[in-house]
Design brief:
By secondary structure, the chain is of the alpha+beta class. The chain folds into 2 domains: 3-142, Fructose-1,6-Bisphosphatase, subunit A, domain 1 (Fructose-1,6-Bisphosphatase, Chain A, domain 1); 152-258, D-Maltodextrin-Binding Protein, domain 2. It is 33% helix and 27% strand. The protein has 7 helices and 14 strands. It has helices at 3-25, 44-60, 92-98, 172-181, 191-200, 213-224, 251-258, and strands spanning 32-34, 41-43, 65-68, 82-90, 103-110, 113-121, 126-131, 135-138, 141-142, 156-159, 184-186, 205-211, 229-232, 244-249. The model has no long low-confidence stretch (mean pLDDT 94). The structure holds D-MYO-inositol-1-phosphate (IPD) and calcium ion (2 copies). The site of one calcium ion has 5 residues, from strand 4 and helix 6.
Length: 264
Amino acid sequence: MSEVNNAFEHAKKWIQEAGAQIREQMNQPFEINTKKDHTDLVTEIDKNTEEFFIHKIKEHFPHHQVMGEEGVGEEVTSLDGTVWIIDPIDGTLNFVHQRRFFAISIGIYVDGEGLYGLIYDVMEDSLYIGIKGKGAYKNGERLAAINQERTLEDALIGINNFWAIPNKRLDETKIHELVRKVKGTRSYGSAALEFAFIAEGIIDAYITMRLAPWDIAAGKILVEEVGGITTKVDGSEIDMLNGNPVLCSNKAIHQSLLTFIKEK
Ligand code: IPD
Ligand code: CA
Ligand code: CA
């Protein structure tokens, strides 16, 4: 077994262990703090979970780099070697307010190439896995290729309501047109789950203006394995070291969506 394959085998085990710990810890009182503003939350459980992964990774793979949202690991400035890109709880607002609809997301990259993506829907106990060149799976069952024929009129798209009101990043009038055109819109509040749902074929696209590498790293691999595509909203490649505006969908509607998204 190659070293990175071994890392993946451990990741599958650890992500489920971490999920079980979250389910346990969330029944006790826990500390909640804000970061950038009142909508940006972090709890001690986010931090504990990130620490859990860093401890395990450094114990077994001391030379791997770890990029985590809560900054418990080192600052990663290059994707050389093996890099774990981790969001310990994606959907913290859901976690705090709803106690569901959140996920742990782990991408394992080697020299910048995404090899393994794992997204664990903690309360559903569903593990989504993407393995570069070998398909995407939900709880061990292979996910079918996504529908490449689907048009925008028939599409259910994930989009944050924020982008449909006046904002400084994109032309909201184009988004109004888009909302009228598509079959429906959804906002799940967890980027990782939106990617997983595209891979599963239960939504067709996801548009958002600012995601960090840990929101995208696993989902991108998963979606590519079922024939989908993830780019920035201008169609260019994702930068896995920095923040990105993201457009993810099947290939047919990716092109149509580009005409509705005009950055300011
Ligand atoms: C957030 C969620 C949310 C997305 C935000 C992310 P967090 O991650 O994925 O759906 O709209 O951009 O920051 O903070 O809950 O890990
Ligand atoms: Ca998070
Ligand atoms: Ca996140």
